[in-house]
Amino acid sequence: MIEVSVHRAIEIFKTLHHETDNHFLKVYRGSSNGTFKDWKLSELACLYMLMDGDPRDLDSLVHQQTTLIDQMLHHVMELHTKPLASSVAG
Q: Is 66 exposed, middle or buried (0-12, 13-18, 19+ CB in 10 A)?
């Protein structure tokens, strides 16, 4: 399942003309059951993987990106506008 999600995220990067080399790195891990392929992803690659958009639908990807950015900015603004709780030693 991870393999499918990673490949969809790679296709999204390609659709949006982003370089993939610095965001998706194949790694191989060993265990008592043998060696298996895994992925090391950048934060941006993780976000695109979580978006799980259709790499063929550019309009939808742009909308998802805009929504994600709006949500992140809203969250950052909330963090900066909340008053800090004061602690009083008692």
A: exposed
For the stretch 8-26, pLDDT in tens is 889 888 888 889 999 999 9
Confirm whether 86 is domain-assigned: no
Q: pLDDT (tens digit, 9 = 90+) per residue, 51-78? A: 777 777 778 777 777 787 777 788 778 8
Q: Is residue 69 part of a domain?
A: yes
Range of the domain at 21: 2-74
Total domains present in the chain: 1
Distances in Å between the alpha carbon of 47 and those of 38, 42, 51, 73?
Answer: 17, 9, 6, 15
Higher pLDDT, 49 or 90: 49
- For residue 87, tell me if it sits in a domain: no
